[in-house]
Amino acid sequence: MREAGHGPERAQSPAGASEEDDTLATIPAAPAAPAASPAAPPAAATPDASERARALLVPVADQRAAAPAPDVAPVLPGVPAAARPRVQAPSGEPADETGPPCPWCEVGNRPDRHFCRRCGMSLAERPGVSEARRPWWRRMWESGDRPAPWAGERPKLRRGIGRAFTWIAYGLALALVIYGAFNVGTAWNAARDHFTKRAQITPDSVAASRSFGGHPPKALFDKISNSWWGPGISQSADGEWIEAHFKEPTRLLDILITSGISTKASDLSEAALPHRMDAIITTADGKTTTRRITLDQVSGPQQRKFRAQNVVSVRFVIRSAFNVAADKQVSIAEIEFFTRATTSGT
Questions:
Q1: Which of 119, 201, 244, 320 has the lowest tally of Cβ within 10 angstroms?
Q2: What is the pTM of this model?
Q3: Boundaries of domain holding 166
C-alpha cells in the first residue's frame, strides 16, 4: 500500500520544481499541454529542465500569425478563375518631357517630336479638324507621298473630266516652261528696252517717192519743227513714201512723228495730215516686216513704240490722211528715231 501511494507523488514533483525556479517564472508560459496519462512510464513524464525551457522560448503561435497571406484567393475545386485585366483609360499623366500635349492622349511631348512618345500618333494632326488644302504647285510632286487613309475611310477617287483637266493644266504649264526657255533672250531684251535710256539717232541717208519744191525729204530729220516734207500732190497721197537708211544695223525703240507743217495748232488747217501709214522695216539679213502706224489729228509730236533690231532701213508709206482737199497736200514736219543710249551702260 505504501508503494502505490508514492507513485503519484513522484509524478507531481516536476511541477513543484518549476515553482521554485526563478528563471522560469519570467518566461511567458505556453498553453498547457494535456496531462500525461497516469499509465505512462515515469521516465517519459520527467523531461530535462533545459530542454523544457528551450521549448517554452519558441513562440509557435506568433510564427503562425506572422505568416503572409496567400496572393491567390481560394477558389472552388475544379473551377479556376483567371485574373481580370485592368482597363486604364488614356489620361494626362505627369511626364518627364515638357511641351505641347498630344491631341490624342494628352501626354506631353518635346517640340521637336513628330509623333507621340506614348500612342505613336502624328502630332501634326488633330482629331476632328480638317487639314488646310495646300496650293497646287506644292501638291504637284507629292503624288506618291500622301498619308494612308484611316481604317474605314475611303480615299477620294479622282477620275473623269476633273483628272483630264489636271493633265491639261500640267501640259500647259510644261509648254509655258519650254516656250520661256526658248524665248528667254527675247524677254531679256524686252526688259532692257523698257528700262533703258533713249537716245535720238539720225539716219545716214533719206529717199522719197517724190517731193514738193523747196521741201526735200531730209527736212524730216533736221531736228527743226518748222520745216516739212510733202509729195507735191493733192488729196490723200495714197502710196507715196519716204525711206530712211542706216549704214550700221540699229536697234530702234520708239519713234516721234510730227504731222503738218509745224508744231503750232493754228497751222493744222494749212495742210492735210497723215492718218494711217505702213512702216516697212528691213533688217540686216534681208527680211522685211510691215507695221501699221495710226496717227491722231493733233499738233506736236506723237510717240509710238517701234521695237525692232538690226534695222538697216525703214520706209513710211502713206495710206490715208485728215483734212484732205484739192488745194492741200499731205505734210510731215518731223520724224525722230530713238535707240538705246550708250550712257545707260547697256
A1: 119
A2: 0.49
A3: 158-195
